[in-house]
Write a structure and sequence with these properties.
The complex is a heterodimer of chains A (395) and B (68). Chain A is α/β, with parallel strands linked by helices and 395 residues long. Chain A has helices at residues 11-22, 48-52, 64-69, 129-138, 152-163, 179-182, 184-196, 291-305, 368-379, 384-392; strands at residues 3-7, 28-33, 72-76, 80-84, 89-92, 97-99, 102-105, 109-111, 144-148, 167-172, 200-203, 207-213, 216-221, 224-228, 230-233, 237-239, 251-252, 254-256, 268-270, 275-279, 284-286, 317-322, 325-331, 338-344, 349-355, 358-365. In chain A, strand 17 and strand 18 (254-256) form a beta hairpin. Helices cover 22% and strands 29% of the residues of chain B. Chain B is built from 2 helices and 4 strands. The longest helix of chain B is centred in the C-terminal third of the chain and has 10 residues, at 47-56. The N and C termini of chain B lie close together (6 Å). Classes of the chains: A alpha/beta (395), B alpha+beta (68).
Amino acid sequence: MKNVVVVGASLAGVSAIEGLRERGYDGALTLIGAEPELPYDRPPLSKEVLCQHTGASNLELHQRDWYADRRVVLRLGVAATALDTDARTVTLADGGSVDYDGLVIATGSIARPFSAPGSAPPPLTLRTRLDARRLDERLEAGQQLVVVGAGFIGLEVAASARSRGLEVTVIDLADEPLSRVFGAEVGAWFRRLHERHGVDVRCGTSLTASNVDGGRTRVEFGHTSVLADHVVAGVGATPAIDWLAGSGLRIGDGIECAADLSTSVPGVVAAGDVVSWPNELFGERMRIEHWTNAIEQGRHAAGTLLGDHEPFRTVPYFWTDQYSAKARFVGRATASDDVHVERADDGRLVALYGSRGVLRGAICVGAARELAKQRKAIAERTAWRDAVHAGAAPV
Amino acid sequence: MTYKVTFDPAKCQGYANCIIEAPELFDFDEDENVAILLEAHPDESLREHAKAAERGCPAHAIGVEDEE
């Protein structure tokens, strides 16, 4: 292999570059990215950038010399628009194309669009650095923000805006925030957290209309309405794989990869949010939109491209910061049969998730050591009965 | 070649990923919400764990450097 192309100037893409060079790959290396900027770190966009009003600067994963040292040709500001796996070429938005003999796909996710009936423009979303800058510039103390969607991004934006002195209303269709992931009891903990900080949380309701009203937006939901200065939608993300239509790659919920992150086409691997792969540690197919996963999959996919073909096995790790609450999560919570909330007071939360009699996930707030302990227990496939019993014992 | 693990508590934001990736090298102060480096000169067998902790620190508070 002597001509590797990485599509996606993302954390996963950059980690693949690092992995390729660390493993001694010495050939040509090209990084293609849709955004004009050097690859940057996304988690701060909904947190520090909005809280501290930092203008979304200093977020680069690496400076330009890092890429030069690794002889990476940067093709930034030009999206990949098509893939021909027979000819082994990537078509670019500027009409050009790039040949490869090895390809890493790391195009990440896009914010799921949201629209409501009415005359108002669609809500803002938050995914890119440009989105964050735009939002950061607009938010002013005393204004009213409406957030549609009580998921991670929605709640982080709500917390950040609240810390800057905005009035915030959060609307979600589900009965509690985050309940689709964490269940109602843990969801209620997050609702109380936001209510203590003065956020108006409206669950079990949906936005029915959004109309321009004298320079502001009249947002209607349930039997009530709020006059908003800004409306932000955080209703999830979808893998950025539209450009792969017709490529012959097997697509399901993301790119359907094998256990080693290879795709259905020789010479093509994938990493990060776009990947659906069988995680042997859990015995199920997963697609994970987490920061740490992007790093580790990027590095792993590099190894597979160079001929290693080890299965990628991981216990996912994820965090969310809202006010001073730092929630850390390991494993999987969705589709769990069992939830055991060990403690849920104002400052601390520990809850375990199980399925088919086995521990598979844990969320911890203010309990870092517990998190490490549960991570180990999940990797060892601890029986649910034993996990709950161990948790209940006095420390 | 030996190596050295560095940790900057001022940068630490309490993500706790280090005690997951390298429990042999890090502990955690839950009252202060900050990690604690236990071993700055670990055994060679722990180098991969140290590197994973370095990569996995969202706050870039951990470094792993070769030493002569």
